[in-house]
Amino acid sequence: MDRHLIVVSDVIEPEVEHVLSAGLSAFNDQMTGINDRQSLAVTVRDPDTRQVLGGITGRTSLGLLFLDLFYLPESLRGSGLGSRLLKAYEDEGRRRGCRSAVLYTLSFQAPQFYEKHGWQRFGEVPCDPPGTSRVFMSKAL
């Protein structure tokens, strides 16, 4: 008889994150013989206070650059700063040996911005509110 307890939660405890990440990383290392996972952040900061105003976070692994979060406050949008951040992020991915990049965005967020920078859609999944979707994109680096 299986006595394992299955727990559903809306909180990801640090222990849970650690066990899952370490286990999956060990499996991937065993299968590929490569351990090159590395976080990546490109930020823009206030020149006086050094406070983070926006930026990009993600990671690199197995030749792939993942873009997880990209945010700029409205006051900084349209200035070319977003393009500079994205270029710096992609350049660092290339420096780390990545050949491709992947992200997803929402249809009302920035798919056109990414397309302007050479990213291509490879899938869309409908989500809420009705009429919107998650847009999956990639780019050869």
UniProtKB/TrEMBL annotation:
Superkingdom field: Bacteria
Gene3D superfamilies xrefs: 3.40.630.30
Residue ranges that the Swiss-Prot or TrEMBL entry lists as coiled coil: none
Domain N-acetyltransferase intervals: 1-141
Database matches in InterPro entries: Acyl_CoA_acyltransferase (IPR016181), GNAT_dom (IPR000182)
Pfam entry (one): Acetyltransf_1
Keywords assigned: Transferase
MF terms in GO: acyltransferase activity, transferring groups other than amino-acyl groups
Cited SUPFAM superfamilies: Acyl-CoA N-acyltransferases (Nat) (SSF55729)
Name of the protein: N-acetyltransferase
